[in-house]
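FORM 7B: Structural annotation worksheet

SECTION A. Query
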Amino acid sequence: MFKITEDCIEKKTMLEYYSSDAQKGTEEFEQLIKKFEAEPQYIFRMRDHDQDIYYIGYSDDCTRPKGFDPLDMYGEYYGCIDIQYLNDKGEYERL
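SECTION B. Predicted structure
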């Protein structure tokens, strides 16, 4: 599961949840949100081919293959081709 919290192009705050494990609007989806908010989250950002940052958010997984869910399920539709996660050193690292 992941959530998008910032649209950097339109400079607006968002709060949209997404999951490849359950459909939005179902009880299962709502349970996933509760679990997601109670567990560790990993900050990510998605960029386009010019390396402009489009979106910032949080994911429950920063490893392959689930770490690509934000890019696959959301970012690609808006021209993003890259996802990076914030590492322990405070630097963004490409997945």
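SECTION C. Observations
The chain is about 20% helix and 35% strand. The beta strands are 2-7, 12-18, 42-47, 53-59, 82-86, 92-94.

SECTION D. Sign-off
Analyst initials: ____
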